[in-house]
Design a protein that fits this description.
The structure holds two protein chains of two kinds.
Chain A: H1 2-10, H2 12-44, H3 49-64, H4 67-80, H5 87-113, H6 116-124, H7 129-144, H8 146-166, H9 172-183, H10 186-215
Helix pairs in contact in A: 2-3, 2-5, 2-8, 2-9, 3-5, 4-5, 4-8, 5-7, 5-8, 6-7, 8-10, 9-10
Chain B: H1 2-5, H2 18-51, H3 56-71, H4 74-84, H5 87-96, H6 103-106, H7 108-134, H8 138-146, H9 151-166, H10 168-181, H11 193-201, H12 213-246, E1 249-252, E2 261-264
Antiparallel strand pairs in B: 1-2
Helix pairs in contact in B: 2-7, 2-10, 2-11, 3-7, 4-7, 5-7, 7-9, 7-10, 8-9, 10-12, 11-12
The chains are: A mainly alpha, B mainly alpha.
């Protein structure tokens, strides 16, 4: 056991940098997922059937394709096609767009949880459709979706490992692999990486539980 | 866009047996998913029952076990088991693997992949099943006790048939995630669909003219979309049927990627 602590202190910089890379990857992808997810959710509840279908196609495509395949398409596929895309761009875009499909579904169900009367009242008060969405529906919808968004964040932290494995990004798993193959202490290296991931997922769980306690409205 | 839809770039699909080659790979994914699902259902049920047992120590230990495997990245577990499992275990699997399995699945590397998939998915399914069992009315169990049924009789006759049926839609949703996750075993060198795609697009395959990578992987992605869409339709249908039959509303189980829902009394 003492050698395990030694491995941690000896390779702390590498593990910390991997942790930081994973954190940045998740943070950036989360931003992409929320922005794109909101747009897609808006499409899915738009007053036009064609826009709704467009949103539906987006959700069904990105939700049913494996993230790993998405990463290969976004990086190797585009590069082979002559688009000079970098690993970070491809990674953040893939993880973000993939999660955006789930975010859109969560937001949509949140919007449907807002009663119709609210929307009718707002429209009759003279708000336009976009205004109704922005000022009346979304503020209420957001509060009902805190808990599912927390689930998605945790899934995202776990999925970020796939990005590191598919592309040239040295995240926590890859750093653990490098340390493991250099020192032949695979168990210890992977143990500390596991601790890193559990720290992230537990932190996300606690943070979202706090948010929920503060803002959530139960329906 | 011109590049994407250029017929020259889709020609590989109809030349020689490329499409068939990809389908063969996809079949391996489906087989891995099926085996992993069956094992995960059994292990998940055991874990769920242990989490609901009256023994406090057992509940605590299993709770930690489930939470740890549920919160680790699956890819991380696959990699660790592929590197970290003793070689003797793999050999034992190779010797024990039944003859009727396809050759690809008889390799010892598949053991690490299957074990990882089962460790992860059994933890997830245990949570789903627990939520299903707990959503039952307390009276069901109390009535069964009053009728003089033993623990196993209560579970077998009263609790599980109702609790698990409620969780069927959620289980099918998890199967979609599992199906997608099987692509990850590419990392440890199993001959499945991603590997087959890589072979098709690798240089020097047709004397130096590889199939275009973008198109091949879009095709692979479409195979997953079609299969998973069918599964998600099934899940939705089961959910609606269950709602009609029991008049229950749905409530989400936390910590899962897909918005897996449990059925709960209004």
């Amino acid at each position: 056991m003492s050698s395990w602590f030694e491995l941690l202190t000896d390779n702390f910089d590498a593990l910390a940098s991997g942790f930081w890379v994973t954190l940045r990857l998740v943070g950036a992808s989360f931003a992409v997922a929320v922005v794109v997810g909101t747009l897609v959710a808006a499409l899915r509840i738009a007053p036009s059937v064609w826009l709704q279908r467009l949103g539906g196609v987006y959700v069904e495509t990105f939700r049913n394709v494996p993230l790993f395949i998405l990463l290969i398409i976004a990086y190797s596929g585009l590069r082979r096609a002559g688009v000079p895309i970098g690993p970070w761009t491809a990674g953040i875009a893939s993880l973000g767009l993939y999660t955006a499909a789930y975010v859109a579904e969560v937001l949509r169900s949140g919007v449907f949880a807002v009663s119709r009367g609210q929307i009718e009242a707002s429209l009759s008060l003279g708000f336009g459709y976009p205004q109704t969405l922005r000022r009346i529906v979304l503020p209420q919808a957001v509060r009902t979706v805190i808990s599912p968004l927390g689930s998605l964040t945790i899934a995202m932290i776990k999925n970020s490992a796939i990005v590191g494995a598919a592309l040239a990004i040295n995240d926590l798993v890859k750093e653990a692999r490098i340390i493991g193959s250099r020192t032949f202490e695979t168990d210890a290296a992977f143990f500390w990486a596991a601790v890193g991931y559990l720290l992230l997922t537990v932190a996300a769980t606690v943070a979202f539980r706090q948010l929920e306690r503060r803002y959530a409205i139960s329906r | 866009m011109g590049y994407l839809f250029d017929p020259d770039n889709w020609e590989w699909l109809v030349t020689s047996n490329n499409a068939e080659f990809l389908l063969e790979g996809f079949l391996v994914n489906v087989q891995i998913a099926t085996i992993a699902l069956v094992c995960s259902l059994i292990a998940g049920l055991a874990l769920a029952l242990a989490r609901l047992s009256r023994n406090k120590a057992l509940r605590f230990v299993v709770g930690i076990w489930v939470d740890v495997w549920r919160n680790l990245p699956l890819l991380f577990v696959i990699l660790y088991l592929a590197i970290g499992l003793p070689i003797s275990w793999r050999e034992a699997y190779e010797n024990a693997a039944p003859e009727f399995l396809p050759d690809v699945l008889q390799s010892g590397r598949v053991f690490a992949a299957l074990l990882a998939l089962v460790l992860y998915n059994s933890a997830v399914l245990a949570e789903i099943m627990r939520a299903g069992i707990q959503s039952l009315d307390r009276g069901q169990n109390e009535a069964a006790v009053a009728l003089g049924l033993s623990y196993w009789q209560r579970m077998r006759i009263v609790i599980l048939p109702q609790g698990l049926r409620r969780m069927l839609p959620a289980t099918v949703s998890q199967l979609i995630t599992l199906n997608k996750d099987t692509t990850l075993v590419f990392i440890i060198g199993i001959q499945e669909v991603v590997r087959h795609g890589r072979i098709l697009t690798g240089f020097n395959f047709f004397g130096g003219v590889p199939a275009p990578l973008l198109q091949v992987f879009i095709f692979i992605g479409l195979m997953f979309v079609v299969t998973n869409l069918a599964l998600s339709r099934l899940s939705r249908r089961l959910e609606i049927r269950e709602q009609k039959r029991t008049g229950m509303t749905v409530k989400p189980v936390s910590g899962l990627e897909d918005q897996v829902t449990t059925v709960q009394a209004r």
